[in-house]
Amino acid sequence: MKAIGIPAGSSGHDAAALADLELAAPVARGQDILVSVQAVSVNPIDIKMRGARPQADGRPRILGWDAAGIVIDTGPEVTLFAPGDRVYYAGSITRTGSNAELHLADQRLVARMPASLDFAQAAALPVASLAAWEALFERMHISTTGSDAGKTLLVIGGAGGVGSMAIQLASIVGRLRVIATASRPASQAWCSELGAELIIDHRTDLVPQLAGKDIPGVDYILCLSDTDRYFSTMARLIKPHGHICALVESASPLPMNELRGKSASFSWEGMFTRSLHATPDMIEQHRILERVAALVDAGRLRSTTQVCLDGMTADNLRKAHALVEDGGVIGKVVLARQACASCSTTQILEN
User: Fold this and answer.
1) DSSP of 202-229, one letter per residue?
2) What gap in Å lies between CA 20 and CA 17, rounded to an integer?
3) Residue 146's closest CA among 172, 180, 120?
4) Which CATH topology does 128-268 take?
5) DSSP, res 138
6) Is residue 28 within 8 Å of residue 73, measured between CB atoms?
7) How many angstroms separate the CA atoms of 240 and 102, rounded?
8) How confident is the model over 124-156, as pLDDT tens digits?
9) Crossing angle for the helix pair 161-172 and 185-194, nearest 10 degrees?
């Protein structure tokens, strides 16, 4: 099968290392489904994993953790899917990635993709939707039934993939008042379009900006940017008994005592925790993606595909990595065997 990856023994520090490869086709066993991949999207985790050490066994490294495609075979333990199903999912960082013609994924991490979307639009959703859902509703325990309606959420880094889904999920499912940070007119407009009531600029101090809007504090904060840089600011802004959740690992120990006086909570969100540790509740990611698909098909959530490159080739993947690595892309960058009509490489916007 055709795949795109880093050849055996090569360093992936530069996107130029990504190459078209020919590999043996995988075989579905156990709870795995075999997917004919039709579209993938690129996430910051792809950039991080690209720079990891070459595999000790000398195999090429295939990246990619967002995919949409068609089931063509199933392992003997599979009960949720059958050949012909159109699915979307975020795979496991412990396994070969989805930047390939064929890909194996555990059925517990997969769901049927929204019927109203094409593959390119669906491929943008899994990683970002799962990270946002888990952060909001599992880590910070925001109610999915409206019990926390009217409370405030600050999303630091609102225009990226996870931020774009968090704004939607928090406002639509959680019924929260969402404040998002964005620095450029295009990204500010994007956050507003997705449901943020107020946009502030993360390039300057957040505290006086909110104070100027008579908002001395917020109930929840989702930090999708530099955790070290924003921690003390978040400690000042969080209300007593509030909750902060961060996705980006810190470079040094965080000053947790700054939260003590407010009895505020802090959580990490790691979207790959369930698959990395094969937790007993891995099936929850299947269920979350099912709920997201239902919300999309009901017209309540939208895909965040903004840049779609036509053709799953090494050249296009190198371009996609460069865009994500450089920053400035609103929403998600997708590669598809057949590009969606609503997306264009001209839609490269600032965050």
Assistant:
1) TTS-HHHHHHTTT---EEEEEE-S-HHH
2) 10
3) 172
4) Rossmann fold (3.40.50)
5) I
6) yes
7) 50
8) 999 999 999 999 999 999 999 999 999 999 999
9) 30
In contact, 36 and 72? CB cutoff 8 Å:
yes
> How many residues make up the chain in this entry?
351
What residues does each domain of the chain span?
A: 2-125+278-336, 128-268
Query: What is the β-pairing status of strands 86-89 and 110-112?
Result: antiparallel
DSSP states of 147-171 as a string? Answer: TTTT-EEEEESTTSHHHHHHHHHHH
Phi/psi of residue 324, each to 5°?
-70, -40
pTM over 0.90: yes
Contacts of 236 (CB under 8 A, 6+ apart): 207
Pick the CATH number of 2-125+278-336 from 3.30.70.3400, 3.40.50.300, 3.90.180.10, 3.40.50.720: 3.90.180.10
Q: State whether residue 276 is helix, strand or coil.
A: helix
Burial 53-76 (b: 16+ CB within 10 A, else e): ebeeeeebbbbbbbbbbbbebbbe
- Burial (CB < 10 A; 0-12, 13-18, 19+), residue 186, is middle
* 102-106 vs 177-181, strand pairing mode: unpaired
Q: Tell me the C-alpha distance between 153 and 174, whole Å.
A: 10
What single letter denotes the amino acid at residue 277?
H
- pLDDT tens for 101-116 read 999 999 999 999 999 9
Tokens coding 149: 């309606």
Furthest C-alpha separation in the chain: 61
Q: Strand 67-74 relative to strand 218-223: parallel, antiparallel, unpaired? A: unpaired
Sequence-ordered strand ranges (E) for the chain:
2-5, 19-22, 32-42, 67-74, 86-89, 102-106, 110-112, 152-156, 177-181, 198-200, 218-223, 238-246, 265-268, 305-310, 332-336
* Tens-digit pLDDT profile for residues 210-235: 999 999 999 999 999 999 999 999 99
C-alpha dihedral, 138 to 141 to 147 to 153, nearest 10°: -100
